Amino acid sequence: MFAVHASEPPRSTRGGRPRDPSRDEVIRAAILRLLAEVGYSALTMDAVASEAGVGKATIYRRWRTKQDLVVDTLSDLTRAIAVPPDTGSLEGDVRALMDLVVTTIRSPAGAAIRALLPAMQHQPALVEAFRNGVLRVWRTAYARMWARAEARGEVGPGMDQSVTAEATSALVVQRWLLTGEPIGDAYVDEVFHTVVLPLLRNVRPTQG
């Protein structure tokens, strides 16, 4: 997956009157749509207000700057990601997590994150929000998956930090963040059967 280290999520600086939580979801959905369409550099507070159908004052009560707005939205994405349950086998768990990644990639959040990549080179706060949002959910889910597989005797210790573990998601993430090529169901199936399954079978402990 990604080599990152989780830390406390960045806190946005807000001012003004208490916010109305009922509008948060609508505003965040508008932010994701706009990020996917125009990117970070062209995003404006006015555009967010217009897209969400709220007044500018509603936006500024929540976030003082555009960076605060985007950081808070990225950090909050963890609520929208439903981590797959234990399937009872390593192969089933890996496929369920691949599907989770693909579902996120295909969502407005996935399109928004990809559009943010150029800005992340110059905005450390955005990188931290990404790490402490979607990536933290994925890394935690993968770590638990490998721990369950080790407990079942399907793999040896330390697999969560291995090249094999990284390779199970590398091709999908490469298409998402680097090449922009489509990630269809047929492609995911091919990656799983021709690349991921042979890797998993290769790391099973030998029976002595």
Helix and strand topology:
Elements: H1 24-42, H2 45-52, H3 56-62, H4 66-76, H5 90-106, H6 108-120, H7 124-151, H8 163-179, H9 185-202
Helix pairs in contact: 1-2, 1-6, 2-3, 4-7, 5-7, 5-8, 5-9, 6-7, 8-9
Salient structural properties:
208 residues; elongated; disordered N terminus; single chain; Tetracycline Repressor, domain 2
Number of domains: 1
Which parts are unreliable, with pLDDT below 50 for 5 consecutive residues or more?
1-17
Q: What oligomeric state best describes the polypeptide chains here? A: single chain
Provide the gyration radius in Å.
19 Å
Question: How many strands in all?
Answer: 0
Helical amount: 55-70%
Main sheet summary: none
Number of helices: 9
Instruction: Choose one word for the global shape.
Output: elongated
Mean pLDDT: 86
CATH superfamily: Tetracycline Repressor, domain 2
Spatial gap, N to C terminus: 32 Å
Can you tell me the CATH topology? Answer: Tetracycline Repressor, domain 2
CATH hierarchy: architecture: Orthogonal Bundle
Q: Helix- and strand-based class? A: mainly alpha
Strand content: under 5%
> What top-tier CATH class fits best?
Mainly Alpha
Q: H/E series, N to C? A: HHHHHHHHH
What's this model, at a glance?
The chain contains nine helices and no strands.
